[in-house]
Amino acid sequence: MAGMACVTCELVERRDAGAAPPWDRILRTESWDVVHAFGTSVEGWMVLVLRRHVEAVADLTDDEAAEMGLLATRLSRAMSEALGCPKTYVVQFAEAAEHPHVHVHVIPRYADQPEEYKGPGIFFHALGVDAADEVPESRRNEIAADLSRLMSHLSG
Length: 156
Hints:
This protein is α+β, with helices and mostly antiparallel strands. It is 35% helix and 15% strand. The chain has a single domain, classed as 2-Layer Sandwich (HIT family, subunit A), CATH 3.30.428. Strands 1-2-3-5-4 form a 5-stranded antiparallel sheet. 29% of the residues are buried.
């Protein structure tokens, strides 16, 4: 990372210190954190964050990779129930300079979603939005509470 701080690692440290708001600590496992994305206009845009710094999926341990798949599936089920979305998108890039750390986006695809928000277009239209267009923190916290409750009850 050549001297640049990893914002994702800083957010993991904030969670470790118990200083994260509810939307940023939905579920924590030994290897992964489940959080609501910030800077998005889409309610329920979730992120699975690896708790250790790794920059490529190929560098995950077998246990981390297995848990990632299980969490993405269980989170998608919980999102379907809580948000009414018929499907989710599961995407991993880790290309932003400040977020090179492996993190997996689990994004609700709503039935009435505009065409430009479908598929990869969602990243261009609904992420990195102005604060006025961002899902309010109070709503992120509500979604977090629902998903936390549902994920604690869902299993294979």
